[in-house]
UniProtKB/TrEMBL annotation, chains A, B:
The keyword Amino-acid biosynthesis applies. NADPH binds at residue 106. It catalyses: L-homoserine + NADP(+) = L-aspartate 4-semialdehyde + NADPH + H(+). The lineage of its organism: Bacteria, Bacillati, Bacillota, Negativicutes, Veillonellales. NADP(+) binds at residues 9-16. Pfam families: Homoserine_dh (PF00742), NAD_binding_3 (PF03447). This is Homoserine dehydrogenase. Pathway: Amino-acid biosynthesis; L-threonine biosynthesis; L-threonine from L-aspartate: step 3/5; Amino-acid biosynthesis; L-methionine biosynthesis via de novo pathway; L-homoserine from L-aspartate: step 3/3. The active site is at residue 206. Belongs to the homoserine dehydrogenase family.
Amino acid sequence: MKNINVALLGFGTVGSGVAEAIRKNSRIMEDSIGCHFTISHVLVRHPEKYRDMDLLQGIHLTSSFDDIIADSSIDIIIEVMGGIHPAKEYIFEALNHHINVVSANKDLVALFGPEIMHTAMENHVNFSCEASVGGGIPILRPLHDSLAANEIESIVGIVNGTTNFILSNMDDSGVSYGDALRVAQKKGYAEADPTNDVAGYDAARKLAILASIGFHANVTFDDVLVEGIEKISQNDVQYASEMGYTIKLLAVAIRQENGIALNVYPAFVPRSHPLASVKGSYNAIYVTGNIVDDVMFYGKGAGSLPTASAVMGDVISTAKHILNHSTGTGMMLTETKRIPFYSSLKLENSYYFRLIVDDVTGVLSQIASAYADNDISIKEVVQKSRIEDAAELMIITEKTPRENIIHVEKALQVLPCMRQVANVVRVMEDDRK
Amino acid sequence: MKNINVALLGFGTVGSGVAEAIRKNSRIMEDSIGCHFTISHVLVRHPEKYRDMDLLQGIHLTSSFDDIIADSSIDIIIEVMGGIHPAKEYIFEALNHHINVVSANKDLVALFGPEIMHTAMENHVNFSCEASVGGGIPILRPLHDSLAANEIESIVGIVNGTTNFILSNMDDSGVSYGDALRVAQKKGYAEADPTNDVAGYDAARKLAILASIGFHANVTFDDVLVEGIEKISQNDVQYASEMGYTIKLLAVAIRQENGIALNVYPAFVPRSHPLASVKGSYNAIYVTGNIVDDVMFYGKGAGSLPTASAVMGDVISTAKHILNHSTGTGMMLTETKRIPFYSSLKLENSYYFRLIVDDVTGVLSQIASAYADNDISIKEVVQKSRIEDAAELMIITEKTPRENIIHVEKALQVLPCMRQVANVVRVMEDDRK
């Protein structure tokens, strides 16, 4: 039986998952594709720390990438170290040495995807990165291949586990944003500085990768407008729930007639919608195409073994290409062309407002005028609570362009009765047919 | 630009969808894979009926398969006629003439999948059939390729549109089974004789295909135990709803230590579970692997364009193989080995019973004894209604092997107080971690 030698760059959460997956399922992979996988090298900063690990017996541990690149028996390098440097340099060097690469590195792929792909193609080797979006969920390859006959109209993803854990916890247990964040940090789901996740940057990177593939264009992180979940309060979560919604951080790419719009924002999702059942550590990507209508891909968005499943899917696919002598073909993220952007200011949504106002007569007429002046129809107004001389109002609008919402927010802020525009959140519709 | 000639066998719902998809998105496909698709022939029984159709201008309409097989310019034959004969003969003839085949034919693939695949491989051409399960949903290729590193533990599918439409309608509108079936027939979702769908046979065929791929074995329709939805009443749907469940027809393949068990049955699905949001014409397949944990694939399970999306995904993939000179590789459903079966009698589930009994004292103790005698723990007993001198009881059991349930059903039927064991339905748990 043919043997495929792989080298692991990094041995953290995903790297150890890959080693565990190979040990656990080697017989299944042999049966399935007729070759055996051997981990020949693992690159770690301090090899001595890993020597006694059961999983790594018989494997060459090294802190030198040169050791790996010099070994001509290596068929596939698996980059699971994360970050930009030195992962980027290692990947380019591997490709230029005609070694296939599988990577789980979203930061790198979101910034340099097309450049890496072209280097791989020039060298007739594969570069694949299924694990960079949605953990174990098969999404990049199905989006690129299975849906290839479609013009993709929109991609809506729940692709950040940290924010989904926080929001699910706020919804299920009634805790505050701050408490939910602290629980996430304690469990290791959120970092000490949680900005990258809670401000939506991580989701924006994944959206850039999804949009590049779905729209056959070169989309980067900088093209995505980002709003985070920091302002979502327990009141917002509770009012959403009372109306039959749950709040999720969505990464949304929409094709309009004159370009595409890319946004990350929290939104009310109707409980009847499949995205509403995506809780805790799960991710999902909801794709609409002009032929297929809508499809959703759902699963564990992170974690050692689920992410290793996606990495090994790529490794097995690469092994098949090696066996068929067809490496360097059928790759994704090869487009370098840019695509026009549609102004997100023109995108229409229904919106939820939570306002803290003076509890005096005539307040509602002031507020209603502000909405009317900005051409916004109000669908519902409810007074939710009253504390001393202040009242909390919830307002739901009809579908309105983003720019009118920004204008009314400013107008509301300067009303004499207004104490605080506490939150403004988009409301998603369930428009499944 | 390279041209790929395709011939369509059949021009019904799916065939016209394929023609429409090619017309609508030819530019997108050209951009994406760098080749142009031309429909050169369409095989129909009465060509004269189609001559004026806008979609078919410039295409050779024929009622003779020999016309098609004789044309050496055809690269791919798309079989969308359905049924076993003459589709089977045409497909084998095409493959033996070294022509690639894409098929949407679940009946054929469920019976002859491995035989067809081996004929394709011997002739170094592709056979693919993504559209045979789940309409437009990318499932067979992702299950085979993206999840290749996993030992698949279970596959739970909502894969029959007719029954899902009927059950969703009963749940949403409170109509009876009979009325929901008549609506489905009026809308064209159910046939005049609905047995194939409502008795679960269609779902069983799709389960056989899914299990063959997921478990790397040759599983056929005959291996699946089938229960239909004919006995589901509005009362059952309503009681399920009151407890936070919705009833779905599930196709379930489970790996146990000593083999696999394959069943189609209606079940209570918790509303919190992603499968519960799969309504009407949607399908979903929920897959658990020992590495990836659980993933779900969701989308339109039928319909002209959604199914055409899956067909064209296969056509595009085959075109890439043609361009790379790698047809005949990487195919699914190639296993001919059989796999041991685990007795479905031993599978454990929680169960719902609806019983119509005499409304007299002492009834509950008779019934409780019957359950106790069969080692079944009762979780909940509720008297739901009382009509004249009869009472309707709902009983939910703890997890119990199927064989004990069959025994208690017989014991209940002969109790003096028992008027009718109105229904017995499995209750699914939401065991997501």
